[in-house]
Specification:
Distance between the termini: 36 Å
Order of helices and strands: HEEEEEEEHEHEHEHHEHHHHEHEEHHHHH
CATH architecture of the largest domain: 3-Layer(aba) Sandwich
CATH superfamily of the largest domain: HUPs
InterPro entries: Asn_synthase, Asn_Synthetase, Rossmann-like_a/b/a_fold
Shape: globular
Number of helices: 16
Keywords: ATP-binding, Nucleotide-binding
Protein name: Asparagine synthetase B
Region (Disordered): 1-25, 55-94
Number of strands: 14
GO biological process, one term: asparagine biosynthetic process
Structural class: alpha/beta
Largest sheet: 5 strands, parallel
Strand content: 5-15%
Number of domains: 2
Strand order of the largest sheet: 10-9-8-11-12
Length: 362
């Protein structure tokens, strides 16, 4: 079992408790393959033989993922999967002071309970990674990006403000060309957006391993749980979300987590580190789900509740810092596109970046 003791998972199955106080789990218990409600750990079995399973799809001939919140009999097949957990859908709290206190307590307990042995921090200079770093003051901070990128500049500013040392992993075209086939192999995906998002993370993790660390703390989950996306802030006017409210749009984003986390976990493990995501602990999820819209987004200011908590441990400049999506803040997207065009895959061609990615596999 990854992520939790079998006794905890067994009790969660009996009680149908979707948030039993873990940071996620996946594995086998009592003849079932189980994966937590947010899919925080990947889990796969053979399509025709669920008794053959793995945390890595590459170990299997015809892998099928166990869906989040489901149980699969090891003597059955994916067609017999049973959903045993669903994500809670609480009403919005009306006591904003209590809601802010719950977020603060949950976030600080989670980041401060992380063991620092063998741990490094993926640090972009945004509030998510800075809050995580605040809980492990002795862990080294790493940022990846091309020279001149937003993330490197932001991380340097934040590290200076926090009095933290920062190690910069400068990306290169050569590193991209080497890493893309390795990432595609780990993911089983050639989708350019997925590749662009994890490229900096993969190359950062490789450096972390080279420096002697085997665990990487990340800020994953904060944008989804606390309203960090522009399309959430613009709801219902943004066509990328279906919801009619900011709170509804945030919940849409939470439902995207299983696919994102499978991608990120598989990538980091392929690079040689085990991810640690304290902002995805059940206690943080429980504190975030009841937040009213105004504690997610207020007059365009995103992640209101998280920033309020962060100001207790971070300089205001860091707690309020804006952050670009990783593929843009590191220039990974721009430079992968540049390499594709240099290789003859022009923008007028359909899916030109994906065609380039697939060409690297050859």
């Amino acid at each position: 079992m990854n992520g939790a003791a079998e006794s905890v998972v067994r009790r969660a199955l009996t009680d149908r408790d979707p948030l039993p106080g873990t940071a996620g789990f996946a594995g086998e218990v009592d003849g079932y393959l189980v994966r937590d409600v947010l899919g925080r750990y990947p889990l796969f079995s053979e399509r025709d033989d669920a008794s053959s399973w793995s945390f890595d799809h590459r170990d299997l001939t015809d892998p099928v993922a166990v869906p989040p919140g489901h149980a699969r009999r090891t003597n059955g097949s994916p067609s017999d999967d049973e959903q045993v957990w669903t994500l809670p859908d609480p009403d919005a709290t009306t006591d904003t002071d209590e809601a802010l206190e719950r977020v603060r307590d949950a976030v600080f307990e989670s980041v401060r309970s992380v063991e620092s042995d063998g741990l490094a921090v993926a640090f972009s200079g945004g509030v998510d990674s800075a809050v995580v770093a605040s809980g492990v003051p002795n862990a080294p901070c790493y940022v990846a990006g091309f020279d001149g990128s937003h993330d490197i500049a932001a991380a340097r500013d934040a590290a200076d403000a926090m009095g933290r040392d920062l190690r910069v992993v400068e990306l290169t075209h050569e590193a991209i060309e080497r890493a893309v086939p390795e990432i595609v192999d780990a993911l089983g995906r050639t989708n350019p957006m997925d590749v662009q998002i994890v490229l900096p993370l993969y190359l950062l993790a490789e450096q972390v391993v080279e420096d002697g660390y085997d665990r990487l703390a990340v800020g994953q989950g904060a944008d989804e749980l606390f309203g960090g996306y522009a399309k959430v802030a613009k709801a219902p006017d943004d066509p990328r979300v279906e919801a009619e409210t900011v709170r509804g749009a945030a919940r849409e984003m939470v439902r995207t987590l299983p696919d994102q986390l499978e991608r990120d976990v598989l990538t980091l493990r392929a690079a040689g580190v085990e991810p640690v995501a304290p902002l995805l602990h059940d206690r943080v999820v429980e504190a975030a789900l009841p937040l009213p819209g105004e504690l997610l987004v207020d007059d365009g200011r995103r992640k209101v509740a998280l920033r309020a908590a962060a100001k207790e441990v971070l300089p205001e400049s860091v707690a309020e810092a804006d952050k670009k999506a990783v593929q843009y803040g590191t220039y990974a997207s721009r430079e992968l596109d540049r390499l594709a065009r240099q290789a003859g895959f022009k923008r007028r061609m359909e899916n030109h970046v994906q065609q380039y990615v697939e060409s690297l596999l050859e």
